[in-house]
Amino acid sequence: MKKSPLAMQSTSQTQRNKPLHEKEALVKLLRWHFGHAQFRDKQLDAIQAVLSGRDCFCLMPTGGGKSMCYQIPALAKPGIVLVVSPLIALMENQVIGLKEKGIAAEFLSSTQTMQVKTKIYEDLDSGKPSLRLLYVTPELTATPGFMSKLKKIHSRGLLNLVAIDEAHCISSWGHDFRPSYRKLSSLRNYLPDVPILALTATAAPKVQKDVMVSLCLQNPLVLKSSFNRPNLFYEVRYKDLLDDAYADLCSVLKANGDTCAIVYCLERTTCDELSAYLSAGGISCAAYHAGLNDKARSSVLDDWISSRKQVVVATFFVCFSEMVYVAQFSLILFQALHGIDRKDVRLVCHFNIPKSMEAFYQESGRAGRDQLPSKSLLYYGMDDRRRMEFILSKNQSKNSQSFSTRERSSKKSISDFSQMVDYCEGSGCRRKKILESFGEQIPVSLCKNSCDACKHPNLLAKYLGELTSAVLQKNHFSQIFISSQDMTDGGQYSEFWNRDDEASGSEEDISDCDDGIEVVKKVANSKLSTKAGLNERINFLQHAEESYYRNKISDKQVNKPSKNAVSDVLRQGSKEKLLNALRQARQRLRNLTIEFEASAIFLENECYNKYGKSGKSFYYSQVASTIRWLSTANSIELTNRLGIDTDSPSVNFISKEEPPAAPSPSLEQRPAQITGKELDGSCGSENSIGAFQTESESPSTSLPVIPSFSEFVNRQKVKDNQPNTSCKESPKKNFDKRMRLQ
Ligand SMILES: Nc1ncnc2c1ncn2[C@@H]1O[C@H](COP(=O)(O)OP(=O)(O)OP(=O)(O)O)[C@@H](O)[C@H]1O
Ligand SMILES: [Mg+2]
Predict the structure, then answer these.
(1) What DSSP designation does 451 have?
(2) Does the Cβ of 200 fall within 6 Å of ligand 1?
(3) Which residue ranges does the record annotate as region Disordered (predicted)?
(4) What are the DSSP calls for 533-560, one per residue?
(5) How far does the centroid of ligand 1 lie from the alpha carbon of residue 464, in Å?
């Protein structure tokens, strides 16, 4: 509903006696149109500066109310304010909000229909535009056609202000550099006497200077507020110390009731998995990323903004050249939740470590925009750290051959990331670390125990100690592929336990409820610590499997149709997922020379052979674990896994289903396939492990039967109770062999 124009008129009358930008008149506008009692912080200074025709650089924290600095000027004078914004979703969100308040605002973008655009242009050409605020993209601003329209409006004295939102995007030193923002440098030439207002929440000193120089601001009023967000509590949790980070996040969300949250992940697959997991746990949740079509995406955003969904699991932005790595994400989608004004976000969770403190600040700043107590929670994992380091170094080497500016910024990105690592791995006040990274020196007392480091320093010290030992242990075990006889509490990389979370977070793949889910969920949510004894875990899983079979048998007895069979369609889908995961692994592991299709088939067979009979719940769980394992495995682990089980029926499957016309080079280069004897537990000669042989040379021996889970565990127990006398059973020998394969 449009608001009565009375407020504007009365203000205009006041203007006759008082200057237009007098505080009292501006506060009236604020109250009338927005219902806020007072200006916050530096808002009034910024508004008064631009109304008096002065350029202004305004640095305010996320959620600080920067928009008001151009919205009030738009209401204080006839004419229009042009707002340059990097995101269509953000423009749309603001325009809808303004229209609801009766303020004439529009945006121009490729998503608008021709009819809407024509209407806007007609209004602008009318000589008496009704529009107050016009939001545009930086790309449009720079086009000659639009610039000539602007000049026309300006020549009529109707262009009051150009506001550049998220102004740090203009600087290649900033974390969100947008090349199209560079084109805004010409604004000053074309519109010399129109004041420019640059707004940002995340500019380091170097970026601030760059923004002001690039936009050719003249004698700007520089306003800087503290970056401190006193209403946010900062916490880091350590994935390597948690049984299951998915379950942990689920319980955090549940503990806070039906809380509004954003969860940021590095990759789409994690978004999907996590979102499915949380939904299965009863949380109102949706994934939001570039893999969704336009309709699905805007429906998720609508649902979230209008509180129909409480949690959105979104991808976060890494950097331009990673677009290929993270599967053609577009910038707009990466940043889609930036600046979107849902005020009651109580939790922002980074499920993977972000690339820089600036990005972290920007994203965590989505929480508590209503100034109420809210939380930033970051799940830190060593694998995530390595992955991000890999991405950033990849970016560096790529860019160094192309653009020198990018090269500069990508080199910087590595050192920026180290601040994030320090934030997670250091023991000092988190708030202090954030603020210091923006050049703000503060006493620790400012934190008022509103970060985990200040609130529970002893606990944090304990965690960090445990993290160090866990990392040392993990590195050790990932170097050495432990044979099944060598299984110990920490031996999570052994043949059966090569997924460190057999019992974790696979619910994404078992969301179509069936009897097995309960069992898997019990396992997933069990309180068994990763540090609990392996035998305890085996017993637990065995018990789960037995009860699963008991239920299955009783189902059969009452002639219930099996809802749980693994169909060919499901298997095909799994193969494709595994193939994708292998392709992603190839991007990470450059020296990987395997045949991808065949390897995907191989891995799927492995999953099917182990759990196909147990039903789709167990089977899916195994596929999901394998996919997750592929995202962290190194080349040797991967080759070992593919090689070790080569004598399983899957080899026949590969050769039957996909007979290679001629051995491909990659297959010829493939490491030796280990013979059936070795798979069977008999070690064979050491030479046979080191030897190389092509697929066509694979022996067509009769293959061993893959044991069921129970059989495997029982056999394991028997072996554990027997002295190792033969070479066949010698853990030492297997261990040595693995070492040689490294
Ligand atoms: N003076 C004020 N009094 C109370 N609330 C205000 C005031 N000014 C702005 N707000 C509210 O603060 C919230 C955040 O405002 P805004 O979206 O402008 O923040 P921002 O600084 O642009 O943040 P970001 O950097 O995240 O884009 C909005 O809900 C807005 O209505
Ligand atoms: Mg904003």
Answers:
(1) B
(2) no
(3) 1-20, 647-742
(4) -HHHHHHHHHHHHHHHHHHHHHHHHTT-
(5) 37
On whether the CB atoms of residues 630 and 582 are closer than 8 A, the answer is yes
For ligand 1, atom 3, the nearest C-alpha belongs to: 36
Query: Average of pLDDT values for 119-146?
Result: 91
Question: ipTM of this complex > 0.95?
Answer: yes
Residue 486 CB-half CA count within 13 A: 20
- Compute the distance from residue 230 Cα to the ligand 2 centre, in Å: 18
Q: So what CATH class is 243-399+407-469?
A: alpha beta
Residue closest to 643 by CA, chosen among 597, 613, 606: 606
Name the residue with the closest Cα to ligand 1, atom 6.
65
What does the domain layout of the chain look like in residue ranges?
A: 23-224, 243-399+407-469, 566-638
pTM exceeding the 0.90 threshold for the entire prediction: no
CA distance 575 to 600: 6
Please, which pLDDT band fits residue 249 given cuts at 50, 70 and 90?
A: very high
Q: Is 217 in the pocket of ligand 1 (CB under 6 A)?
A: no
> In this structure, which residue's CA is closest to atom 22 in ligand 1?
66
Kindly provide the b/e burial profile for residues 628-666, where b requires at least 16 CB atoms within 10 angstroms of the residue's own CB: bbbebbbbbbbbbbbbbbbbbbbbebbeeeeeeeeeeee
pLDDT in tens, 681-733: 232 322 222 222 223 333 333 333 444 444 444 555 555 555 443 333 333 33
Alpha-carbon distance 129 to 494, whole Å? Answer: 72
User: Cα(69) to centroid of ligand 1, in Å?
Assistant: 10
Kindly state the helix (H) or strand (E) to which residue 49 belongs, with its residue range: helix 43-51
66 lines ligand 1 (CB under 6 A): yes
> What is the crossing angle of helices 616-630 and 596-611, to 10°?
140
State which of 44, 341, 343, 364 you would mutate to test the pocket of ligand 1, scoring each by most atoms of that ligand within 8 A of its C-beta. 341
Domain boundaries 23-224, corresponding CATH code: 3.40.50.300
pLDDT tens for residues 177-208? 777 888 898 899 899 999 999 999 876 788 88
Atom 10 (ligand 1) nearest CA: 65
DSSP codes, 551-605: HHHHHHHTT---S----HHHHHHHHHHHHHHHHHHHHH-TT----HHHHHHHHHH
681 Cα distance to chain centroid:
41
From the CA of 58, how far away is ligand 2's center (Å)? 11
Do the domains 243-399+407-469 and 23-224 match in fold?
yes
pLDDT band with cut points at 50, 70 and 90 for residue 478: very low
Distance between Cα 342 and ligand 1 center (Å): 10
Say if ligand 1 is within 6 A of residue 8 CB: no
